[in-house]
Fold:
Amino acid sequence: MADASSSTQELASKEPKPPSAGPLLEVSGIVKSFGRTKVIAGVSFHVAAGEFLTLLGPSGCGKTTTLRIIAGFEQADKGRVFLKGEDVTTRPPYLRDVHTVFQHYALFPHYNVFDNVAFGLRIQKLPKRQIKTRVTEVLDLVKLSGYEKRRTTEMSGGQMQRIALARALAGRPSLLLLDEPLGALDLKLRREMQLELKAIQRRLGIAFIYVTHDQDEAMAMSDRIVVFHHGRIEQIGTPSEVYRKPKTSFVADFMGSANILSGRLIGFKDGCVRIRLEDEVEVEFPYADPLPVAQGQALCVAIRPERISVRYEGDLPLRGSCVSLPAILADTVSLGDETQMFLAFFKNSTKTVLSATMEARHQNERRDGTPVWADIRWRDILLLEPEGE
Amino acid sequence: MLAPASLWLLAFLILPVASLLILGFTHRGAFGACEWVFTWDNFRRAMDVKYLPIMLRTVSYAGTATLLCLLLGYPLAYFLSFQAGKRRDLFLVLLMIPFWTSCLVALYSWIIILGREGLISHLLMRLGIISKPASFLGTPAAVILGLVYFYLPFMVLPLYAALEKIPRTYVEAAHDLGAGKFEAFRKVTFPLSMPGVMAGVILTFVPCMGDFLSADFLGSPRTYLVGNLIQNQFLMVQDWQFGSALTSLIVLFLITGLWARHIFEEQGVFEGEGEE
Structure:
C-alpha cells in the first residue's frame, strides 16, 4: 500500500492524470491518534465518481474522524488522501474541491439564508448575477425557494438541514461529505430526508460520503457501505453483501440483528460441516462458502432472528434442507404487527437466547415454557471468525 | 431572584447617581455648605464654553485609548481563545497582573520609565533617534499610554469571552466553503465577535472618560481631563455642587451614547452583509 501510494504521488507530480482515470477519492492507510487514543488504525477505501458511500459504525469508531481527515480539518498521522489522483493529504480544507454538511448544520447565524448559501460563491468571486441564479437554483433543489431573506436562527431543524445541504451543493463540489446530517431530526422527517437526499444525489451525480450510525439509513441510501469498528474497517460492500454475507460477527450483528452463538468446527466432510454449538448441541449441514477457521477451532455462528421459524409439537417441519433445534419458549414480546419470541436453546447456558418473530395469528398459541422446535435453513446459517483478539 | 439584584442596583448605582443629580441642583453656601435651594447655576456653569476644550480633550483621549486597547486587545484575545491551548490560563493570569498591582506603584513605575533618566529615553539615545535625554512625561501620549495600560484587560476579557463562544465549526464551515484564514476571519469570526467588541469598547471607554489618575501622574496642565476637573471640585475646591453637575453631564453623555447604540442595534446596523 505504501509503495503504491508513493508511486502514485510521483506520477501525479510528473503528469496529472485525466480525471476519469482511477477513483474520485482514495484514502490509503490512514492512522490517527488523539493523545494516546488511537482513533483510526489503518483505514483504506475509495469512492468512485457519483457513488453514494456510507461510513457506518457505532459512535467512537473513527468514522467522523475519517471524514474530517478527508475534508482537511484533521491531519492524519500516517497515510494519504488522493482526490482525483492528486495527493491532498496536507492541503488545507479551503483548497479541496470537497464540501461538508455538518452534523449541527453550522449555518452562519449572522447571515440570512441567501447569504449562507452564497457564502462559497462569493469567496469564489463569481459575478453577482451568477451567484443569484445558483442560489435560486439550489434553494429550489432543496425546496426552500422564497426563504432567501429568512434568518437561519428562526428556522426548524429540517429547514436548517436543507440550507446546510444547499450551501454545500452551491459550489458544485465533486464530492460531498455528510456527517450524520439527519442525526438531529425526528424519525419521520429522517425517512423523508433520506429519500430526498438520495434523489438529489442521483440527480446531480455528485459522489457522497455519508457518515451515520444508523444501519437502516445506510441500507436505504448507499451504493456501498464501509463498516467501521474500533478504528478499523470490518467490511466494505453493497448493502445486500454486508447484510447477507457479513464477514465478521460484528457486522452480522450491526447490520440488522443476529444471534451470535459460540461454536466449534468439529468436522468437515463432503461439503458438510459438523459444528458443536455452545458446547452442547451438535448440528451437521452442507456449507458452500469458504470456512473461516480450520477444523477443531472455535468460531461464531450467526443466525438472523427473522430466519428462524418456530414450530410447535405436531406442526409440519420446514420442508427439507434445514436444521431443527429443540427449544423452550422463554418469553414473547408484542411489537404490533409481529411478535418477538425468545427461545431458550441450551440447558447449560442461560445467556444464549434466540429471538424470532412470528406472525400475529400464532399469538393465542403461545405460552411461556412450551417446548417448541426452531427450524433454520442451511443457507441462513453464517459461519464467522470468533470475536475478540 | 430579582430582589437582591434590584437592591444591589438601588444601593450602589441608583442612589449614588440620584444623590449626585440632586446635589447638582442645590446651591453652594459659604465654605462649601449645601443650601437646599433649587438652582440651574451649576449646570449652566458646567456647560460654559471654557470647559469645552477639556471635554473634547477627554473624549479624544478616551477614544484614542479605547481604539488602541481594541487594536492591541483583539489579537491578544484571539490568541488566547484560538491558539493558546493549555497555556491559556497562564496568559489570562498574566493579563490580570495590572489589576493586582496598586495603581500608585504602577503609575510611579511609568513615571520612571517615561522620565528623563528612564528606559525610553535611554533606548532612543542608543538608537540615535534623540541626542540628549528627554522626558516623555506630561505629553498626551503618556496619559493615553496610562489609560491603555489600566483598561486593556477591560477590553480583552469581553473580547475573549465573545471569541470563546463562537463554535469552531463555523470557522471550519467557512474554510470548507473555500474561505482562507483571513477571509474566514473577516466574514465569520470577526462579525460573530461584534458583541464582545461592543462590550469591550463600552467597558473601556466609560472608565477612560472618568479617569484622572493617569493625567494626574503622567500628564501636565496641557492634558487636564474632565476627571481631574471633577476630582478637584470634590477634593480641592470643595464645590460638590459643581462637581455633581459635571458628573451628571458626563453620565448623561454616556447614557445617550449607549442608547444610540441600542437603537442602531435594533435596526440591524451591525449585522451581516445582507447584499443581494
Observations:
- The longest strand of chain B covers residues 27-28.
- The first helix of chain B runs from residue 2 to 24.
- Chain B has one domain: 39-264.
